[in-house]
Amino acid sequence: MTALALLAFAGTLSLGRWQLGRAAQKEALQAAVEVQSTLPPLDMPAFLALERPIDTVHRTVRLRGLWLPSESVYLDNRQMHGVPGFYVVTPLALEGTQQTVLVQRGWVQRNFEDRAKLPEVVTPTGLVVVTGRIEPPPGRLLDLGHGQSPPPAQALGATPALGFSPIRQNLDLEAFKAETRLPLRTDVTLLEVGAASQGLQRDWPAPSLGIEKHYGYAFQWFGLAALVAILYVWFQFIAPRRRGAHRAKRI
User: Fold this and answer.
1) pTM of the predicted model as reported, rounded to 2 decimal places
2) Which of 5-19, 29-43, 165-179 has the lowest mean pLDDT?
3) Count of C-beta atoms within a 10 Å radius of residue 54
4) 40: how many CB neighbours lie within 10 A of its CB?
C-alpha cells in the first residue's frame, strides 16, 4: 500500500508540474506574440524576404496586389459577437511576384432563409493595398463530411465548375492550391484588419493559447496528489489508532 501510494502521489505530482511547465511555455509564446503585434508593419519586400513567416505570426504587414474574387471561399459556421455567419477568404495575387496569399477578409452574416445564398460582399478591382496580420491557415471545425474538394477550375480566374459551391466548412490550403492551380502560399495567411468595409466586419476574436486550461489541469493533478496523501495518512495511521482506542475503551 505504501509503494502504491508513493507511486500515485509521485505520478500525480509530476503531471501537475508538467501542466505548469506547459502553461509557462505558452505564456512565453503569448509574450512573443504580443511583442510581434507591437512592431512596425512590414512592407511587401520585407515580407517576401522572410525565411519563416510563421515565426512572425500576428505581426502586421502591408501587401499590394490583385484580388481573385472568382476563387473566394465562404467558411461556414463562423461566429462574430455570437452571431453565426461566414469568414470570407479571397486569394490576393502579389504585385510583381509569382506568389498568391490567402486573405481572411472579414465576417459576414449568412442568409437564414436561404442557406445557399451568398451575402453581398464588395471586392475592389485593380491594385489594392491590404493591411493585415500574419496568421496560420484558418482554424478547422468538426467536419462530418468526407472532405471532398470540388473539381478544379480549368484556368486561373475561370468560372467554377457547375455545381461547385464556395461555401465550405474547412479549407485545406494544399488541396485548395491544387484545386485552383494558383501559386498559393500554404505556410501562412493574412488576417485583414481595420474598420468594417466591403460588407465585412473585422472584430476578430483575440488569439487564445489556452493557458488557463493548463493551470486548471495542474490544480486537478495537485488536488489528486493531496487526496492520495490524505487518504494514505488516514487509512495507515489515523484510522488504525482510532480503532485501537475504541477497542481499549471497550475493554
Assistant:
1) 0.70
2) 29-43
3) 11
4) 7
